[in-house]
Structure formats: structure tokens, C-alpha cells
Amino acid sequence: MKKVNYRNLFSCFSFLLLALLLTFSATTFAQGDPVAGEKLFKSNCAACHKLDKKAVGPALRGVSEKYDTEWLHEWIRDSQALIKSGDAKAKQIFEDYNKSVMTSFPQLSNEDIDNILAYTSQPKPKPKKTEATSTTATTNNDSGVTNTIILVALTMVFLLLVVLLYLVNKTLRNIAAANGVDYEGKDKGTSLCKAFVKNQFLLLVSAIVLLLVSAYLMFAYFMQVGVDQGYQPVQPIHYSHKIHAGDNKIDCNYCHSSARRSKTSGVPSLNVCMNCHKNISEVAEDTGNEQYSKEFYDAEIAKLYDAVGWDAENMQYTGETKPVKWIRIHNLPDFVYFDHSQHVTVAGIECQKCHGPVEEMEILEQFAPLTMGWCINCHKETNIKLKDNKYYEKIHKELSKKYGVEKLTAAEMGGLECGKCHY
Amino acid sequence: MASNKKYWKSVEELKKDSSIVKTLQQKEFVEEIPVDEFLGNKKTLETSSTTRRDFLKYVGFTTAAASLAACEGPVMKTIPYVVAPDEIIPGEANYYASTMADGFDFANILVKTREGRPIKIERNTLSKNNGKANARVYASVLSLYDINRLSGPVANGEETTWEDFDSKIKQQLQALSDKNIVLLTQTFASPTTEKLIKEFTEKYPNIKHVVYDTVSCSDALDAYQNKFGIRALPNYDFSKAEVIVSVGADLLGDWQGGGHDVSYAKGRVPKNGKMSHHVQFEANMTLSGANADVRVPATPSQQMKILNALTGGSTSGLPSNIAEVVAKAKSKLQKAGSKGVIITGLPDINAQMKALQYNSASIVLDTNKPRLVRKGSNAQVNQTVKDVISGNVNGLITVGVDPVYSLPNAEAFAEAYQKLDFTLAFSMKMDATASLAKYVAATPHYLESWGDTQLVKGEFSLTQPTINPLFNTRQFQDSLLKWLESDLKYYDYIKENWSSNILNGISWNQALHDGVIESSVAIETEMVPAEGEATLESTTAHGAFAFNSAEGGYELTLYTKTSLGDGQQANNPWLQEMPDPITRTSWDNYLTMSAADAEELGVKNWHTSNGALNGSYVNITMGDVVLENVPVIIQPGQAKGSVGLALGYGKIAAIQEEMQTGVNAYPLYQNFSTLQNVQIKKASGEHHFASVQMQNTMVGRSHDIIKETTLEIFNTKDVHHWNPVPEVAKGMEEVSIRSEDADLWTSFDDTVGHHFNLSIDLNACTGCGACVIACHAENNVPVVGKTEVRKFRDMHWLRIDRYYSSAKTFEQEIKDLKELPAFETYEKVEIAYQENPEVAFQPVMCQHCNHAPCETVCPVAATSHGRQGQNHMAYNRCVGTRYCANNCPYKVRRFNWFLYSENDEFDFNMNNDLGRMVLNPDVVVRSRGVMEKCSMCIQMTQKTILDAKREGRAVKDDEFKTACSAACDKGAMVFGDVNNHNSEVAKLKQDKRMYYMLEEVGTKPNVFYHVKVKNKEEV
Q1: Torsions phi, psi of A220, nearest 5?
Q2: How far apart are the CA of A423 and the nearest CA of chain B, in angstroms?
Q3: For residues B851 and B276, what is the distance between their CA atoms, to the nearest angstrom?
Q4: Which residues are bridge partners to B279 per DSSP?
């Protein structure tokens, strides 16, 4: 409890300090609203600029210190005009950045630009997480230690109890022997055993029960062979579906695009990753959590860069690639033909129906058992999406007449026939 | 009556009391499975150290161990592209139009690729010319993944880099700039390559370009050049012909570059009561003879006289039976007028000239569009060989040819070749020539190369790479460009040449997409002086024409097999295992001989107790050349006094041990003439053939298997007469097998959704076997090897049965059967016609019965019926009891006796990583102990349905295809949905020629056939 108090106190204090600093900086460096500026920055500038790191364009924190505001107004509205006018500074920047042309923003008013500059002039927030993570780490450690201690203590207690019981038993027997009491406990036990052996019916029944139970257990054991539900291997790059599909709401089909057109959903090629990660070389400040720190995630992005051969410093490809060897989670046997497009495009089934809440999975795992029974059940229950699909027109008419129903399940369409999936 | 004709499949069946045939009628195997050998021997059992208890322990332990080992699943990796190519969607096939041109086979094709690997060849339906795909073309995709291919350039026996190689070659070319060098190449039929070679020989004027066709067409080329002024082959459109008279021309085989079967088959399907009439005079039994209406066995020397008689000469000197047919043919030709055609395969310029002269008045010959697929001149090649041997030539560059293997005087040539100053071989493999050459330039497979071809004048096609080169190879044209100090790649060179000379306004991208374009531009082709014409009678140059029966020799006709051709793809296990359409023998070449000659020589064929075929050896002598231990197959229909032998076998260099089959017949190919005069002596020993001929005896019920009639009966008689529907007794009355009363079972409701049927027209089917290979490629059918084929364990899902039958006409047959004494009928009728049987081909695959006998006997329900008409086979459910195969009346089920992939015992393509790249990822590779069979390409029908569903449209008419129906360019196989009444197959099902195989069994198949009609019309 004490610790928590201290932490609260400390964070309160730091917040105050931060607020103070912010007001101070805002007044000194630029006039403008940093909050409005942030919005403008993210919608207009963030594609090419970052605050603290070089991207396509230079890092922008403190840019208003380097250049005067008037010049910046002109540059941002139309950089090419400025370069053509022969401005030395403008030319220099143009040369430094491989003559890449900055988009012009004539729509931004002076006020807008000032707001953006105000945002860029904010000092770098101190990494506040370090303290928190270290504390949680210790508490984590604490709980780990206590758990083992408790376990050890419990074992000791149990051992003690066993020894005590044995001793008590021994003393009591000794006392009994000394007192000349006839001790019959053992005889009773043997008689029970003998009675059991003698009772043929009981023996038979229990043998049958034993056999049935073991058969059932064995059956259960064999039925789970090859069923890898919950399979959660460690991947060469810690890719978090939670961050991508959950927090950032990227559509599954953006990366797994072939799911719509082909039998395989397709593990995305690395150039798909680079569509975004060309500019996202590190995760946001608040992405790190108790389990995985920001540094951890940034290191994983660095692994991607290494694999794809991207030189983050110079923003260019080196051409040295190391294809990523992902570990396959969903393995269907060769003798099963499964087609993603049939289910995704034709039937319009959500990915989550088979793959589970992927958007919540930090580490992806196999959600469904992928057994034949599981497939068949779904085929029996799921209605076919007949609407607007001319293919089904004729067969629907014929089948609904045959079965006397308006809706058709996949099974009624022939989705239970062996040869539909096994060839 | 059609139904009384007797068919037979092997000479064995003609013997009156053949025990083998009798047993095979009753049982699947002749021999009992030798259980008693082990169990019956008490002594062995007693001395055995393994007790019953021990045995059970072992069984228990191994089962437990096996199941434990199966508990842990393997860790599978998925490795995505770093940068995915735009056009590749994983899991979807891409198709590229291309052209195969290996000097022997020329075809416009579509290449199916998956994830960047070519896995199947299909035909390019946009192509109009004769460059049609055959079995070898379909199989060529496997040759791409040949492990014996060269992995890089070799200089003086050591692998080197291309830079080093180039500098050495340039140095050599400089040093020898005043010496004679010959550039010996295959026929490219490529306008751009010819242009490039011209540039090259202009820069190095000491280099002379000579075209060498391994199997020569020089005589036909010379004749055509003399007559029409262009070195090309005549282009026949047999669909326009009313009467085709062939003298020794295997027009359905590789005669004059092959590819005539499509137009031929078109004219063979009776339309409006009319079809073409085909008379064939030949020595060997060929595909053409098998398909002909009238076939006359005639030795090559007789053929010469026949041709002479047909083109105006007299029939003197010909046996009366032949003379009679010649006279009839002549009058038929006369009647047909410009719709009659005479073709000949005689390797003689005068013979070719005569035929050409006759045909020039015929509409069947299209002189505007000659075929450019052969170019070689015997005279030039002979001169080159002479020069090499005499030392007049100092250097030899070979491209796409293997003269050390294929020249008749290969030994003398090889010796001289090694002594040359400069020898350079462009080759895909370390073949016989390359292994003797100082420099070997590793060339890519055509699926890895750029190229262009002009197969027929005015029809151009492009070859494009469909995979990155697998090895460090560079194509011949790129090498030439390098040595010409050009910076261009061959791709740029072609594009440039096409833009300026060929495209003629068509866009390059369009041409590349279609693969073929028509362009009226004239491209100059290289000419060589043609041999002059002499009078037919005075020709003495060729062995067979100087044939003198007094010497006691035999007239040999060398031919190329449907499977192996000139032998370029000898290392292709698919082709090696493909049974010959006529002899039904795989993994071999052999001397074909008539029964009469065999008896004279004491040569025999016999069947071992399990039905496998054995045969005697002979030694063939021709001058100094002796071929020892050539196996003999007694071939019904072989002309007496003649023998036949296939070229292209007996290769050793760069060939896996399993594929080193047969004898090399090229030493007999003297003067590049397919006709030779040889002496034959019987040799000791016996040869083991891998023949599937005796397999699957049809239990004497052949009249329900193949139905055949003549055009006359077909036109005049009622359908019940020539195509009766079997009747069965129900109570006291006979009912049609198709009526519901004759059915024990409740019928499937096959009116809903799709219902697939396959139609096979026996008239259009020539037996070429292209479908067999296409099926192999599509369905990952394993190759089992010679010893297994001998045990009848071949895995072909689709076989083409060949039946011999015995009567000239049906009327004649019935008369014979009636008139002869009761007990002699069989022998008298059958033996009499063994000299010249009629032949019928019938492709047989799983018939997908609606009342399938296999389904009812499977104890685990591994085979079941689908609503779309397909008989499903769930391999993972099969436990291998083989009840289904036993109960199948068509014997189309195949059992995996062994594991055929990744097994060193079966060292074919599925045993190496490279060879497995050809596997179709949509079809599972079956494991040991399961039954498999034709699935009616369910992966293809499902794909078609899915495409339609995804696009939200109905399936188009005739969109459904199977591998075999897609491969058949003759239209013999048509696949489709019979519930779609607009589809072709639904119309074919209503045709009056339609019948079901073994219909009286009541299986109600989904495969139906069309009665074969032969045009036996008398004049």
C-alpha cells in the first residue's frame, strides 16, 4: 500500500511539473493552439514527418526555432515556389532530402500553420512509463516469489502432518501394545479385500467399469491427437494481431488479401507490411503495456526491417532480404481441400467465426479445433447466402422445391459429400 | 449385327485352350497368392525362431510405437514472399501462352503455373495451325524438372562461369577464324533465330549453318521445294478429304512433323451420313492403320509399287489381294475428285514428288500455308558428317541435337569429333555429344526461355519463360548475342524484330498474351539446295527399294513411338511408362514381327504364369552394323517379310538407370532412310516386357464393350439394329435395361444442380494417348516402373484399351460364323484375320456409375456417390481392402501397393525435390495402401463452380472440363453438365450413337460412348 501511495504522489507531482512546463513553452516559442495543431499535424504532415525522427522529411520538433515563422509559412504553402525564388535555405533542404518534393498546402491559413508549429514546439514528453514498468516488474516478481514460498510452505506443512500422523499412530499402537489391547485393524482390512475378491459379481462389475473408463479415456486421448486447438507457437517476429486488427482496426483482408480470391488466406508478403511500416518505425508511446514494453515492440519492428532489408536510417532498401519463416498455426492435412474464398467471398462468413477474436489476441492461437466434425456441424447449421448470387438461382429453385424450404443449408447443397473436400 | 463380332486383345486369346485366358476370365490373378508356401511348410514354421506370441508382441509394440509417433504434429513453416509479384495470388493458377519447339515437337500451348512453377501444359485454343499438342508436349513439363540437367557451363570438363566461358569461346572463334566451323542445329522454325544466326554467320563467315533433323523429312522437303519453291512440308486439311489413301504414311503419328490427327478426326465423325474413307497400305501396324477403314499390310517394296500404281502406273508385280484394293482405291479417288488425297511416308524424293503432284489438284492441300517445322537436308548433314570424319571441318557447334547418339555412323563420328580443334555443344544435359565436347553451354528448358516460331507460313507464335531459370543456364540465342558483342538480351532482340517485321500493327502485349498471331508478312527463310528429281523406277539409293527377296532378308521400317518420339525426352518417366497404343507395352522398344515370320525364325512370345509377357531376342545385322539382343513382339497385322523398330531408345548418357531402356536403333538409320534391308537371327535368352496387354480380360463380353458398325448400316438401318439397348427378363417379359422396372435400386435424383457426364466418341478417338499424360499431370498419378507394370500394378487412371477384331465387314463375319462347322468357328475366323486385324481404341476410366458396385462393398464407406454424378473416393478413409476393385466391372480402380513418393525403390520424379515441383497442389499425393481412381477431375469441376459463385453468375455452357477432355483436341472426349440442356454433352447424350459400356450390368454409368462407325463403302 505504501508503494502505491508514493507512486500516486510522484505522478501527481510530475503531472503538475509537466503542465507547468507546457504552459511555459507554449508562451515562449510560438503563438497558437497546440491541440488544434496536433489534429492538423496528424491529418496533413504525419504521412511524411515525425516529431523526433527523420522520416521522408526531417523531424519537426522545434522547427520554429530553426527557421523564422514567415519563412515557414511560405515554405509550407508552396515549397517549390520558394526554391525557385532562389532561397538558399530552401535549396539546401531540397538538396539534403534527395530532391523529394514536399506537398504544397495552400489551404492552410497562417493561423493553422501557427497551430501546427505550436504543436511541434512542445517539448518531448518525458518517458513516464519507465517508473511504472519497473514497479510493476517488482510487484510481479514479488507475487512470483510469494507463490513459490506459499507452495513450499504448504508442502512442508503437509509433510509435517504426514510425519505427525505416523508418529501419533505409532505411539498409539505402542500404547495399545503396552496396555495389552488387541489390535484388529489390520484383520478388518484384509477381510474387506478378501470379501471383494470373493464377490465375483462385484469384481466383474468393477472390471467392466474399469475397462469402460479406460476405453473412454483412451478414446478421448486418441481423438485429440492431431487436434491443435489453442496451438500458440512462438513466432520469429512477435506480431500482435491485437495492435493491428484490434487497436488500429486494420481490416483482415488488407493483409490477407488472397482470402477473398484464393484457397489460401495468404500470409502477407513483407512489402505489404512496409506499406505502413515505412513510416512507422516505432510504436506509439502508450502502446507498450505491462507485458511488452515499447522497446520490445520497437525491436520487433526492427526485425521486420532486417528481414525486408530496409535501412531505417537512410530510408531505403538495401536489397538484402531474409524471408521470415513463420510457424504455421492452422494446418489442415493434405487430403482436405479448404478454400478461403468460398467461405469469405461467397458465403460472407466473418473471419472470426473460425479464427476467433483475433483482434484481441496478442499472440495468435488456433481457435477452432479444425476437426471434420466441427466443419460438418457448421455446414449443417449455416444457411447459404443466396441473395444477389445468380449462380444459386436455378439450383435454389430446384432444391427448395425438393426440400420444401426457402432457406438452404450448406449440407442441403451437398456440403456433406466426401468428395467436396477430399480429393 | 454389331454384337456378334469377336474382339481379342492378345495373341494368347486366340489359342483354343489357353489356360491363362481361362483363369484370367475367372480370377484377377493367374497364380494363387502363395500363402501355402510359407504356412504349409511345417519345417520352416517349426524352425522359425519367432513364436506366435513373439509375433503378437512385435505387432503390439510396433502399433503402439507408430501411434505414439503420430501424436506429435510436425512444426510447419510458412515463408511468404518478401516482395510478392503482382500477378501471383497464392493458391491461384496463372496461365501463360507459349510455344514448344524442340526440333521434333512443335505446339502452341498454355502453361499452367502455380506460385511460379509450371505444373501442366494445356493446349492453346486460339491456335489455328497444325501445331497441336500431343502426349510428348503434355509431358514436357516434367522434363523441366529433370535432375540430370546441367547446372552451368562446362569448359574442358570443369564447371565455370559464363564470363570465363564467353572469353574462352571468343578466343577460340578468333583463333579459328580461317578454319571451317559448322553450326549444326535442330529446326528452330524461328524467324528471329534465323535472323540472328544469319548475323552471326556474317560476322564469322567461316561458320556454316546446317540444320539436322534427328528424324529426317528431307525427301518431302526436297520435293516440296522443287515443286513450290519453298523448303517446307505440305499442309493437309484432312477434314476436307473424302478419300484418304496413305501409302506407308503414319498420318496420325509423327509423319512429316505430326499434328494431322485433328483435321483427320474431324472428317471421321459421320455427319449427315457422310464421313471420310481412309485406305492405308503399311508394313508396321500404326495408329493410322488402326484407324483406317481399309488396311492392307504391304512391305515397303510393295508400297513403292502401290504408289506407282495409284498415280497412274500398273498394278503388275503386286499380289492379287493388294492389287484389288489398289484398284478400288483408285476408283474411289477418281470419284472423290479434288477431295481425294494420296499421301506417302516413303523416304524418297520421287515418291514424295508423285504424291505431291497428285495432291496439288486437291483442295485438301493448302499450298498457301506450308508447314515450316522441318528444314534439315540429308545431303548437307551427310556432307558435314563426312567433313568431320575426314577432317575438313575444324570445329563443330551443336545446338539441340545429339549427333553422337543419333547418327547412324556414330562411332566413327565420335572418334573424329573428339579430335576436332573446337567442339561446343549447347545442351540441357550431359548427353552423348556434350560429354565429348570441349565446351558445353548449359541451355535452359523451353519453359525458361524466350523464343518465337512460325510453324505455318503466316502464323507466328511466341515462347515466353514461365519460371526463373532453375540452373545457371543461358539460351543459345543469348549466347550468340553475347558473342556478337551486342548488349541486347534475346527478349529485346525478338521484340525489336517483331515490332519492325512481324507484328504488323498488332500490339506486342496482345501477341504475347495470345501466344499466336496471324500476319501476312513474308519472312525469308533460309534455303538449301534441294536434291534433284529422278524417275521413280530408277531409284537405287535407298536400301529397301533395292530389296531383293533372294537374300532372305527382312524389310525394316524404322518408326518413332507415340510416347518417346526421337528420344529427346527419354528421361521422362511419364512417357516411358505410357503404354504404346498398339502393342500396349511400356518401358521398351522392340522389333515387331508378323506371326508367320516369327514361326519361321523360331521366335516366340509367351505369357508367364501371372500373365506377364516374355519374348525371344534376335540379332539384327545390316552390313557392318549388328544390333544384338533386340526383343521381339509378334504384332498382328505386320506385313509378312517386314519388321519394325522404334527409334529414340537405348540412350545412356545423362539418363537415370531406370530410364535406360530399349536398344538404340539409330545405327540402322543409314542415309537417314526409315526403310532398311536387314538380316535377322534368333538369339538366346528371353526378354521381360512390361505389357499391359493381357490385363483386364473382358470375359468374352466384348460386344457390349465396343460397339461398331459400318456407315452403310448406320445410314440405312434402324438404330435398334446397330445400337440395341440390352434387355433383361422381368417375370415373363423382356424389358429394356434403361426402364425403371429393370432397376433394383432407388435412383438418385440427378435432376437437381449439375450432373456431370463424359462423352467419348470412338470415331474421333485415334488412340494417341494425350489424355493419359494430361491425366497424369493433373492428378499426380505416380510412376511405378517396369517391374511393377509387369505385375499389372500400373497406376494410370485413364487407359486406352486396344481391341483387335477379325472381320473385314460385319456381313462377312456373320456369314463366316454361320457357314463354318460349329467347333472350328473361333479358330478359323480368328486366325485367318490375325494377319490383318481390325483395331478399335477405347479410353476407359472410372465410369462413375450411378449404381456403383464399388460403393456397396466398401466396408468403411470410403467411396460414395455425389449428387453431381461423381463417384467420390476419400483416400484418408480407405483401409485398403480392395473389395471395390474386385467388384468393379470396368477394372478401373488402382491400388497403391507401395509408397511411390519419396521412396528410393521408385526413383522417378516423385523421389526428388526437383521432380516433385510438378505436382498439382490441389490434388493429394496418395500414400501406400489406399485405392485410387479417376475422380472426374473433381478439383476442376469444383473450381469452375466456385469461380461462378464468386463472380455471382451461372456456370457458362461448356465451361466444365476435365484434364482428359481439355487435352483432347480431336473432340473425342466431351465433358459437361447434362442438366444444362445447352451444353454440348447434353446434346451428345441424345445422339443415336450413344451407348453405355456393359450396360446390361445395370451400373448406369456417367460416362458414355459413341458407336464406332467405319466407312466400308464399296464402290
Answers
A1: -60, -40
A2: 6
A3: 38
A4: B245, B294
Alpha carbon distance B829, B838 (integer Å): 13
Q: Which of A326, A345, A390 sits opposite B954 (nearest CB)?
A: A390
Task: Give per-residue pLDDT as tens, B958-976.
Answer: 899 999 999 998 889 999 9
Residues of A whose CB is below 8 A from B949:
342, 346, 389, 391-392
Decide if A335 and B82 are in contact by the 8 Å CB cutoff: no
The sign of the dihedral angle between the CA atoms of A328, A330, A335, A341 is: negative
Specify whether the CB–CB gap between B952 and A391 falls below 8 A: yes
Nearest Cα to B359, choosing from B345, B371, B341, B346?
B341
| Residue A14 predicted with pLDDT over 70 | no
Contacts of A271 in chain B (CB under 8 A): 81-84
Average pLDDT over residues B621-627: 90
Residues of A with CB below 8 A from B945's CB? 391
For residue B76 the three cell numbers come to 510447419
Instruction: Give the C-alpha distances (Å, rounded to integers) separating A346 from A337, A338, B99, B816, B938.
Output: 16, 13, 36, 65, 19
- What is the total residue count of chain A? 423
Whether A319 contacts chain B with CB within 8 A: no
Cell (9 digits) for B461: 507464335
The residue count of chain B comes to 1019
Q: What is the average per-residue pLDDT within B881-897?
A: 93
C-alpha cell at B287: 495408329
pLDDT at position A25 is 46
Under DSSP, is residue B114 helix (H, G, I), strand (E, B) or coil? strand
B672, B711, B707, B724: which is closest to B531 by C-alpha? B672
**Predicted pLDDT at B695:** 40
Instruction: Select from B756, B878, B950 the residue whose CB has the most chain A CBs within 10 Å, as the one to mutate to test that interface.
Output: B950
Nearest to B753 among A321, A326, A395 (CB): A395
Mean pLDDT of the residues in chain A: 82
Q: Report yes or no: A321 at the B interface, CB cutoff 8 Å.
A: yes
Average pLDDT over residues A24-43: 69
Tell me if B964 sits within 8 A of B771, measured CB to CB.
yes
Looking at CA atoms only, how far is residue A276 from chain B in angstroms? 14
Task: Report the interhelical angle of B218-228 vs B378-390 (nearest 10°).
Answer: 130
Q: Which of B873, B923, B946 sits opposite A342 (nearest CB)?
A: B946
Complex-level ipTM: 0.82
Rounded average pLDDT over B277-281: 93
> What does pTM read for this prediction?
0.84
Radius of gyration of chain B (CA): 29
Q: How far apart are CA B144 and CA B444, in angstroms?
A: 8
Q: Is the pLDDT of residue B526 over 70?
A: no
Asked if A419's CB is within 8 angstroms of B872's CB, the reply is: yes
